[in-house]
Amino acid sequence: MIDVILKIALTLFSLTIAISFYRVAKGPSMPDRIVGLDTIGVNLLSMVAIISILFGTKAYLEVILILGILSFIGTIAFSKFLERGVIIERKSNR
Amino acid sequence: MTQVLLIFLPVVCALLIPLLFKKLPSIHTGWFVLLVPASLAVYYATFVTKLENHGPYTSTFHWVKSLDLSFTSYIDGLSLLFSLLITGIGALVVLYSIFYLDKNKEQLHNFYFYLLMFMTAMLGVVQSDHLISLYLFWELTSISSFLLIGYWYNRDKSRFGALKSMMITVFGGLMMLGGFLLVANMGDTYSIRDLVAQAPTLASSPYFVLALVLILLGAFTKSAQFPFYIWLPDAMEAPTPVSAYLHSATMVKAGIYLVARLTPIFAISEYWIWLVLGSGLITLFWGSFFALKQTDLKGILAFSTVSQLGLIMSMLGAAAISLHVDGGSSAIFKFAAFAAIFHLINHATFKGSLFMIAGIVDHETGTRDIRKLGGLMSLMPISFTVAAIGSLSMAGLPPFNGFLSKELFFTSMLALKEFTLFNFDTWGAIIPIIAWVASVFTFAYCLYFLYNTFIAKSDYKELPKKPHEAPFGMLISPIILASFVVIIFFIPNIIGKYFVKPAVLAIQPQLYRSASEIDITVKAFHGFKSTELWMTIAVVIVGFILFSTMKKWRKIYTLVPEKWSFNHLYDQLMLAADVGSKKLSNLYMTGAIRHYLMYMFACIVALVVTTLFLKDGFKFSFAHTAKIGIFEVAIVIVLIVGTLTVLLAKSRLTAIIALGAVGYSVALFFIIFNAPDLALTQLVIETVSVALFLLAFYHLPKRYRIEERMPFKINNFLIALGVGIMVTLLALSAQSQKLIPSISQYYKDTVFTEAGGGNIVNVILVDYRGFDTLFEITVLSIAGMAIIGMIKLRLSRKEKKSHENE
């Protein structure tokens, strides 16, 4: 029973990713794309969690954490890039 | 042992030359050098009488035993004769050069070093019994000749002549090496004596003719035979002692020596007879015909050398015939070998003296142009006498040695009419006619040389120097040689007994058991019934007419345009090689990486697919494949979509993001295929590399940041498709044919018991196969340092700035 539910959830997440990917590909402005990517990251993270339940292993928990961090860092970096034009700013007192 | 080491005496002494030149500048270095060939000549002269009773002397110095390489000095009649020529004429040439080259103006240490090096090389060539060491010395003669021709290296013509002779003789030398290796392979020995002993069995080898042709190429290029004679006239830019020594008496006879030495092996083949005889006759005619065209004294002598070498070569070809005649030792063909060797000695004497006279004329008048010279007879009587003796001997008149060898030459050429094998019955009649016509031309150019230099009237004021007789020291050597020319005419049979017959024995060992068996006596006068005498008389008459009417028919030389000459052909060949190879490499070396990648990928596809087809490598079986689930399908679709987006994206940013998507879906693959460590790493690395791509993208120069779709190119498309298909096919067929089981079971069993770990991937990385990890760490640190270096180190800009500040 739980297997079926998990698989339905996975399918739904995949659909979400597909829809978000459409936004990334199409997205008229750059922020649209970045938000789309962020959504994809979160959904990927959820998919990994469900897959690890399906496989009955704890080995993927690190992957979930890493994905969370990376998705966050990536979004921040992109946003800063859009805002300032650089990701790492030089120290002003140099 | 001393015998073989003495070959190296000149080159060892040469090491002292620069020291003597620098430390004892008051004495002409040539006086020290003179000791070397003189003492060697005395040493070799002692062999002359010993050889008759004792037989050949051998002496071996082992060089590389495991490869069967050795220096073997083998002295029989032939090599002794050549050794005596080399050292004897070498001594005379050194003596001449002492007076010819000014010790204050010339770089004598270079000159004598090269000359002694050449002497060693030449002695090595004629005495070597080992094919490889023979080749070694052979190339050393080419190199030292190159150095000597280019002695005045600041002249363009010298360098051109040196390069030309080097190219041609080294080409021949390499061909000859190939022939040597083939022969050594056939007979399973490098020793020439052993090869001669098994000569009949060698002839049955399929490579026999190939080896023969290759070796003859070497001999013909060295001995300036048609059509390889073209380097010799250009080699006349060398100092005259060099021309006299190398290009008349010794080096150009190395090819003659080789043909004579290998006659016992190859004479059995009709190709040998025809090639040697034919090329000799053509060279003889061609050289004598074109000698009359020359206006430079040394040019005339160069062409006459070519012609005389052809004469000797043709007689060696005729000598090979005696092998095919029953009772060759009593037949009329026996004269050819004798005549060849006899003329070889005679040619060395008169041509050496003529070159020295040409040098003296050049030295005392400042020019070698025959159109400016003339009337030197009364001013330089001694030189004139020597020149007259030399040229009349070359023309073949009594009482000089050239007469005797010319008579013998006619005898051996007339004898060819009686030979019927190998199509000689159809061509045999023409050969004496060609020989006779060539002799007529020879007579004419000898008169031309003598008359226009010494007798014809001329205005001295046009000469660069006021002509006068040369110093006595310079005249010694030509006088000695000229006296030989006369002496040999009166005592031909003594020369024959001690020098010619032992050499003939080496050329035709199957005919005679010992040198004393050869019953040839040279007579100056054969009686009025002999054809040879009437041929000589006709030569004199027709030659005289030809010379006196020279102005009328000389236009014939302008009939054939310069474009058709072999010199032009050589120039064009060099140019074509130069320009052609440049064009060829420009054709494919475009400098565009895109093209190189295309070559590489196309080659990989062609090679792999062809190999798989030829070896029947395509075998697909899907028996062991796992089931395909819905996730895999979904992720594969994402992968394909991502990849297509990368290819078709209009903006670069989209392509980068799509690449990131591809990377992440690969990470997803790792997850569903149970590889958590890989998935972790892949995620982090993908993120970092996407960030780096973005960095690189941001710094693109604005001018080039034109956003457009990648243009479609059919070639690229086909190659990409090919590579993709190839890799797919390769993976499928490799997967279908697993021959051995995986070793991973061992890791699974021992990961805890042996290594004390639970994570099998990590244990493999740091324990079972830690070396790979170590060097991957190294790779990463090198990459990191390289990036720092690339960013921080900006020498070129700094240098620019410092220059600007100045």
TrEMBL record, chain A:
Record keywords: Antiport, Cell membrane, Ion transport, Membrane, Transmembrane, Transmembrane helix, Transport
Protein localization: Cell membrane
Membrane topology, from the record: Multi-pass membrane protein
Transmembrane segments: 6-25, 37-57, 63-82
Main localization category: membrane
GO molecular function: sodium:proton antiporter activity
Record-level GO cellular component terms: plasma membrane
InterPro entries in the cross-refs: MrpF/PhaF-like
Similarity section: Belongs to the CPA3 antiporters (TC 2.A.63) subunit F family.
Protein name per Swiss-Prot or TrEMBL: Na(+)/H(+) antiporter subunit F1
Classification of source organism: Bacteria, Bacillati, Bacillota, Bacilli, Bacillales
From TrEMBL, chain B:
Domain MrpA C-terminal/MbhE positions: 715-792
This protein's record includes keyword Cell membrane: yes
Record membrane topology: Multi-pass membrane protein
A cellular component term, taken from the record's GO annotations: plasma membrane
Main location: membrane
Family annotation (Pfam families): MbhD (PF13244), MbhE (PF20501), Proton_antipo_M (PF00361), Proton_antipo_N (PF00662)
Record-level GO BP terms: proton transmembrane transport; sodium ion transport
Keywords of this entry: Antiport, Cell membrane, Hydrogen ion transport, Ion transport, Membrane, Sodium, Sodium transport, Transmembrane, Transmembrane helix, Transport
The NADH:quinone oxidoreductase/Mrp antiporter transmembrane domain, residue ranges: 128-424
Subcellular localization: Cell membrane; Membrane
Domain NADH-Ubiquinone oxidoreductase (complex I) chain 5 N-terminal: 64-111
MF GO annotations: antiporter activity
MrpA C-terminal/MbhD domain span: 638-702
Spans through the membrane: 6-24, 31-51, 71-99, 111-128, 134-153, 165-187, 207-232, 244-260, 272-292, 299-323, 335-361, 373-397, 429-451, 472-495, 533-550, 596-614, 626-648, 655-673, 679-700, 712-732, 774-793
Xref: PANTHER family: NA(+)/H(+) ANTIPORTER SUBUNIT, NA(+)_H(+) ANTIPORTER SUBUNIT A
UniProt similarity note: Belongs to the CPA3 antiporters (TC 2.A.63) subunit A family.
Protein known as: Na+/H+ antiporter subunit A
Organism, as annotated: Kurthia sibirica
